[in-house]
Write a structure and sequence with these properties.
Layout (H helix, E strand, L loop, with lengths): L2 H17 L4 H8 L3 H10 L15 H6 L2 H10 L4 H8 L3 H10 L20 H10 L4 H8 L3 H10 L4 E2 L11 E2 L1 H7 L1 H9 L11 H4 L8 H10 L4 H8 L3 H11 L11 H20 L1
Antiparallel strand pairs: 1-2
Length: 285
């Protein structure tokens, strides 16, 4: 090996280790020599080597390549997984997850209750069948290949009027834009203001309306669930936390749950107010 070549090789190794933060193993693979020779050259050049097993600082090049804005766009807007993002950018999914944590981007959980993976359908798909043709939620679900529950959940998220009385139209089956009804309720509004919970009336899936869910404190949950009488799904719409998380918090805080079935106190209160308004309107006419 010529002296000139040796000098060029040594400078290249120092550059990769110091400026680009390559590990000795990666340098050895890059330049085609063994790892021990790489370490020897670095020591001869006066470069302090990190203790073996201590790990290496993340390369500045990688930090610049995975910017916060880009990562938020890929992970939140495009709904890409950390593995897919890593493959696309040529880095490990572990690095992607560390950046998500560094920048406070909430990571998605696995399983059927993932608030990001509800199988939401857009209002443009629902409106022709559920609103214009007045199909039942179950029938719309069969047509679109999803469950009736997802139809209703998506309709609420998309601010479509949902038939609160059931799948047909009896005299009591009022249309309800649930998000508006919740925010316009005096008790709910007072509790949200007291706890500093922001108003999120815009249409959109849960993860979009609440990129960061509201912190579920014991006082907030107790006030919403007990004092206001809203359901766990209503709390989901108001805070961005998925229903299973809310149920787990109720148990953790020792807040007794209401029995299953029937309407929540909030919905009974809302129906009673609508009946009174309808009766008064008929009398006046």
């Amino acid at each position: 090996m010529s002296a000139v070549y040796s000098e060029v090789l040594a400078r290249r190794i120092v550059e990769l280790y110091v400026e680009r933060d390559y590990s000795t193993r990666r340098i050895a693979e890059t330049v085609g020599i063994d790892r021990q020779r790489v370490a020897q050259i670095l020591r001869e050049r006066g470069v302090d080597l990190a203790p073996r097993g201590a790990g290496r600082r993340r390369p500045l090049k990688v930090e610049g390549m995975i910017g916060e804005g880009l990562l938020r766009y890929l992970y939140i807007n495009c709904q890409m997984s950390s593995v897919d993002i890593g493959k696309g950018l040529g880095v490990s999914d572990r690095l992607v997850r560390s950046r998500l944590k560094l920048w406070g981007i909430e990571t998605r959980t696995r399983g059927q209750f993932n608030r990001f993976d509800r199988g939401d359908v857009g209002p443009d798909e629902l409106r022709p069948l559920y609103i214009e043709k007045e199909w039942a939620a179950a029938s719309v679900g069969e047509e679109l290949g999803i469950s009736g529950n997802i139809v209703l959940r998506s309709a609420h998220s998309g601010r479509l009027p949902v038939r609160a009385g059931g799948s047909y139209r009896p005299s009591e089956a009022f249309d309800i834009v649930l998000i508006d009804a919740l925010y316009e309720d005096a008790d709910v509004s007072r509790v949200l203001m007291h706890h500093g919970v922001p108003s999120k009336r815009e249409a959109g899936p849960l993860w979009q309306r609440f990129p960061v869910p509201v912190e579920l404190t014991k006082e907030l949950l107790s006030d919403l669930y007990n004092a206001c009488g809203v359901s766990t799904f209503h709390i989901e719409l108001l805070t961005g936390s998925p229903t299973p998380t809310i149920l787990r918090k109720l148990e953790e805080y020792g807040i007794d749950r209401r029995g299953r079935g029937g309407r929540s106190p909030f919905m009974r209160r809302w129906h009673a107010a609508r009946r009174q308004a309808a009766a008064k309107s008929r009398q006046e006419s």
